[in-house]
Hints:
Rossmann fold; alpha/beta; two-stranded antiparallel sheet; 14% strand; 6-stranded parallel sheet
Amino acid sequence: MARFTLPRDIYFGPGAIQELRNLKGHKKAFIVTGGHSMRRTGFLQKLEDVLKGAGLQTRIYEGVEPDPSIERVYDGAKAMREFGPDVIVAIGGGSPMDAAKAMWVFYEYPDKTFDDIKGPFTMPKLRQKAIFVGIPSTSGTASEVTAFSVITDYSTGIKYPLADFEVTPDIAVLDTDIPLTMPQTLTAHTGMDALTHAIEAYVASARSEFSDALALKAISDIFDNILDSYHGDKEARGRMHIAQCMAGMAFSNALLGISHSLAHKTGAVFHIPHGCCNAILLPFVIQYNSRVCMERYAQIARSVSLPG
Length: 308
């Protein structure tokens, strides 16, 4: 038997953040975000206005750093326990969403330690206190739809990709207005991260008919739009935002490969942005893997009309 897990609801398109008015009936929302970009661009205020309009009290937890630490997770979980939310909303790039997922675990289970959950599929049953909403500001990590959370232990320099279907968000909001704010370098790095997700999912040993369809569509759309997205085309940015989500749904269920396992380790040690690290490694990994899955790579090539 196999399993395929997705968020219950995915809202997408321009202004999709307004759909969170459907949270009416909940009482408190704890908002987790990164630096200042979501506040500076006005999206944090829009989110808070929508939630308050639906009758929820809000508390904002700002300052989640890139590659969030175990200490950050514990601090955020403590703030959650003080506020007592029944909705956790993460808005921003992969780091605040990953941090919020781990905070969620320790909010609901304060006696657990990081060692208790760092092994694959070792998390306790969640949603005892809160549901989770993910709102991505970048088009790459797809943490808003995945069963993963990457947390760094800076005492050892190790990045831990926490993995469990329990941390798959309940609601994902793909507001295509938000990624229009990304600078070019971030657009390139996150786009290559998304492409790596889709390619690795398509050749993964746990792939299925469901993940294959999503992965191939994501590869095709990223191939068609990544350059225009880099150069700021509005429509291409929106299509990349959807494509990276499809790649996320694929790899969350099919899992990933050695591009990502190597990128997590080398990126942490040498401080290379994750998507950039994947872009460096991917050609070599494809060459290595082609000894056992050349036909799968050939299918990818045909899907994007590559010659050869």
